[in-house]
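Students often ask why we bother encoding 3D structure as a string. The short answer is that it lets us treat folding as translation between two languages. Here is a chain of 343 residues written in the first language.
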Amino acid sequence: MKHIEDPCLPNTPQNERSFFMACYAASLIAGENLVCKAIKKDTINRYLKAAALLCVPRKLLDPRHDEQGRMGFYLSKVLREHERWEKMPNRREPVTHDMIEHIIRQARYIDKDSLLSALSDWCVLGEYTGARLGEWAQDHKDTKRGKIGRNHVDNSARAFIFEDFQFEGARSRRLNNAENKKISPETAHGVRICWRYQKNSDNGQRILFTRNIENPERCAVKAALRIRERAQRLKVKKDFPIGVYKDQKGRFKYINNKDIENTLRDVAKKVYNITEKADLMRWSAHSIRVGAAVTLHIAGATPEDIKIRLRWRSNAFMLYLRDVPALAAKHNQAVSQADADNN
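And here it is in the second language, the structure alphabet:
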């Protein structure tokens, strides 16, 4: 067979069978399977095992292996690449600077308690916190389970409540954070956010965010204050989530994943002129966390800084990083600087 050209792979019947198994695996990955969609590595291995059993009556070697009994060269490459793709966290696109700017501009002209205004604030805050969905919003399925607002196992709120936002004045002086008190934007110099429940089990962790004087519209403290004030206007009860808004009929609503997905996909369509549904599906509630990781990465933050600020215990965040225009621009700057240093 002329298609086996690697010098390390002699042209033998066993290597040919292994090569064909790699082709079969590639076709399964491409969706040519019984369910006609992408399937996971474990399922692919079961397909391959079933195909290998066809060689038993003819007393042939397992076609998944080479003549030394190891996984075939091409098959191992195909499966390894599929596993790498599969492990990328949902393969979501990040919420970008331009997308947040678009949301902020649109929100200026509408009700401060509308969904878009609420998401404008949560996206700004999300750039700093990298909050996961359950830490600030709801799963839309919970509306059918009657768990909206109090959906933790102990019937408490998983998402942020009033007391999770502790505002501080100058020199870290604690302000009166009672849920029925108003806090002036002029006196709030920082907000210390508490994560009562976390995926990494580091429950109760607190992280401080300070004022962004250079760009008040992208300030975490001001965004947190607006979120708090909205919850007060909508009369959110103590110990209930403050990720809320008012719909077009004036009804009180908790922000859920569908609200976030639909808004981000609509914004991505307008900002980037994306029309393919499959491409738009890459934006979800998780995109806010992805965007936070990308933002710190672009800014030159060290892996340790990213892990501390966005609450990772491992380097798993590396899977979230994306090839974005800002990185290309930084690459250009680096090349230009190198040329200048050599001249």
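Translate back mentally: The two ends are 54 Å apart (CA to CA). Keep this in mind for the problem set.
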